[in-house]
Amino acid sequence: MDGLEIKNNRIDKSIPIYVIYPDNVKWDFFNGLFEEYGHAFYSPESNIIFLDGRLESEEWFTDDHLYVIEAHELAHKLAGHTHGHDIQSEKEADFLGYNILKQMGLNSASQLHREEFKNRYNISVEEFDVPELIEDIIVNL
Questions:
Q1: Measured between alpha carbons, how far is residue 140 from residues 9, 49, 99, 100, 137 in Å?
Q2: What integer is the mean pLDDT of 38-58?
Q3: Which one of 96, 114, 126, 141 has the minimum C-beta count within 10 Å?
Q4: What is the DSSP code string of 27-82?
Q5: CA 50 – CA 80 distance, rounded (Å)
Q6: Where are the domains of the chain?
Q7: What are phi and psi of 130, to 5 degrees?
């Protein structure tokens, strides 16, 4: 299909990444979701991460950014987050994603995620009041 590239997820191979480009026939639908959820989102019904293909042409976008997205979206799955876009579930996914990258030894990606956490929420990962569910997930990574 034009405007679609399927990538392997480097963190969890069971979750493919569908990169959607503006020439995709369903671009208007996906673009609306990207505007609502950000650069990427996880669909629990299909077990797919959908990524805005325009990111790849951005000068600032690096491999570490892709790792951050992969970890963040996996964190939504692990935490059992369903549809919705609330600040608490985003904090949890960012915190858990940071810990996934850290435990994998992806130091530059985990540092990027740490910095993004601070910039988004104006607190450090150490200051985040971690819910018990997220603590349990981290222990079992």
A1: 20, 23, 11, 11, 5
A2: 96
A3: 126
A4: HHHHHHHHHHH-SEEEETTTTEEEEEGGGGG-TT--HHHHHHHHHHHHHHHHTT--
A5: 17
A6: 4-57, 63-139
A7: -75, 125
